[in-house]
Amino acid sequence: MFSPSSPPARLLEKVIQYIDLHQDEFVQTLKEWVAVESDSIQPVPRLRQELFRMMALAADKLRRLGASVDSVDGGSQQLPNGQTLPIPPIILAELGNDPKKPTVCFYGHLDVQPARREDGWLTDPYTLTEVDGKLYGRGATDNKGPVLAWINAVSAFRAMEEDLPVNIKFIIEGMEEAGSVALEELVRREKDRFFSSVDYVVISDNLWISRRKPALTCGTRGNSYFTVEVKCRDQDFHSGTFGGILNEPMADLIALLGSLVDSSGHILIPGIYDHVAPLTEEEKKMYEAIDLDLEEYRNSSQVKKFLFDTKEEILMHLWRYPSLSIHGIEGAFEEPGAKTVIPGRVIGKFSIRLVPHMNMSVVETQVKQHLEYIFSKRNSSNQMVVSMALGLHPWIANIKDNQYLAAKRAIKTVFGTEPDMIRDGSTIPIANIFQDVIQKSVMMLPLGAVDDGEHAQNEKINRWNYIEGSKLFAAFFLEMAKLH
Q1: Is 176 an active-site residue?
Q2: What is the pLDDT of residue 1?
Q3: Exposed, middle or buried: residue 401 (CB in 10 Å: 0-12, 13-18, 19+)?
Q4: Which of 125, 286, 418, 427 has the fewest CB atoms within 10 Å, counting from its CB?
């Protein structure tokens, strides 16, 4: 695998041996980090203290590697109930500033989704537990494991007193699961300072599409989230007293929501597909090359049947075509029992996953015009208001960038295979923030397997993914240095 005449290859061999020898220490550190209940979702003072403790642990770890570390005050968060909670600091760290080397900035987050044993975990979510090579614990794959894998790679060079092949910067936050509060503002503020010398940004906060085959992510969908309110009056009605003599808001809303998408998943809003990027031959080949066992994917998803029968169609509808999902109805009666109520005001919620080259404001206009047309045909005396509550752009990478080339070579070296070139059907706003604000190349280099269960009960990262991922990052540093 390594050419003996090449010093970088010999160095990588030494780094890989070091990581193998010290893997139990790396797992132990992950155990210590998972033990911190750094839940950013529940607005509770105790959990905020845990978040601050987590950020302090990480800052200390980076300082011991020799990095200069700045923990930037995040300010405070005003909650709807009037309560104020402090936002954990965002870590900006730096290791090396040799102008002859490329500078790679790693983004990660150390906050997690809530987890309780009684919700169906087989082990305590905050005690990292190894079973058959799987490391179970909240945050193991999302995102404490990948953050530590990057640190492990750096620490291997440090421990062997070898020069780092690249300059390294870190931006690590503790509020990603809660919408990355304060992050965009910091990135804008530091654009001409901390980020001025950055050449490349690496994000490792998503998963492969396979259990064993590595992947590189080169795009994500955006998201436009809508609410449609139908109102007769603020109070509810008795269905015995008023049923049959009113335009009922719920009936109007059901008709509106039912007009958005058909049973095959096709969006019925006129013009919605007009700006979707055309499918090229090169892109078509990419879907054919991806390693996806449809039967295994269907079984692990616990779905009887998907809307499409081929791997290529499934992937295209997850990644390169828009989708519309209906999420819920506010104001409707949804508790157990038989309450004979006519809701006076209801709000439907739905979202459209956007793809290149859809324009968010055009989509907003199309949605409003369509719903206004459907509503007008009902001749209802109710009031209808449509609002776009959230708009996030899709992200697409340039896969001809040096760092994608370096990552492909590193994957081939460590895993002995070419990576799947995948997109992510969900939305990762931070990629767009980095690309738009600091105008630098952004790459997503996932480490976790498709069945890691981020956000779910029994989240895990395989020991193999965690340790081989640490080697992958080390190989990536060396490949980046060669290409620069």
Answers
A1: yes
A2: 37
A3: middle
A4: 418
The tens digit of pLDDT for each residue in 281-328 reads 999 999 999 989 899 889 878 899 999 999 999 999 999 999 999 999
40-73 pLDDT, tens per residue? 999 999 999 999 999 999 999 999 999 999 999 9
Q: What is the pLDDT of residues 165-184, one digit of tens each?
A: 999 999 999 999 998 989 99
Arithmetic mean of pLDDT, 213-238: 96
443 three-state secondary structure? strand
Cβ neighbors of 240 (< 8 A, separation 6 or more) are: 340
- 258, 211, 212, 254: which is closest to 230 by C-alpha? 254
Helix (H, G, I), strand (E, B) or coil at 484: coil
Give the whole-angstrom CA distance, residue 216 versus residue 208. 8
- β partners of residue 350: 226, 326
Percentages of the chain per state (helix, strand, coil), in multiples of 5: 40, 25, 40
Q: Report DSSP state, residue 177.
A: G
Question: Which pLDDT value is given to residue 4?
Answer: 37
Angle 186-189-193 from CA coordinates, rounded to 5°? 110
Helices (H), 35-175: 45-64, 145-159
Distances in Å between the alpha carbon of 12 and those of 17, 123, 223, 479? 9, 36, 41, 10
DSSP H or E segment with residue 76: strand 76-78
pLDDT in tens, 418-437: 999 999 998 888 999 999 99
- Note whether 460 and 453 are within 8 A (CB): yes
Rg (CA), the chain: 25
The active-site residue, picked from 50, 173, 176, 205, is 176
Question: Are 103 and 403 a contacting pair, CB within 8 Å?
Answer: no
366 within 8 A of 271, measured Cβ to Cβ:
yes
Whether 274 is catalytic: no
- What is the helix (H) or strand (E) element at residue 8, kind and residue range? helix 7-21
The pLDDT-based confidence of 82 (bands split at 50, 70, 90) is confident
Q: Are 400 and 457 in contact (CB under 8 A)?
A: no
- In 3-state terms, what secondary structure has residue 174? coil
CA angle (130, 135, 139) in 5-degree steps: 140
Give the chain's mean pLDDT. Answer: 95
The answer to whether the peptide bond before residue 97 is cis (omega within 30 degrees of 0) is no
Label residue 130 exposed, middle or buried (CB < 10 Å: 0-12, 13-18, 19+). middle
Mean pLDDT of 155-169: 97
Spatial separation of the C-alpha atoms in residues 19 and 16, rounded to whole Å: 5
Is residue 90 a contact partner of residue 56, using CB atoms and an 8 Å limit?
no
Among candidate residues 37, 111, 142, 205, the one labeled active-site is: 111
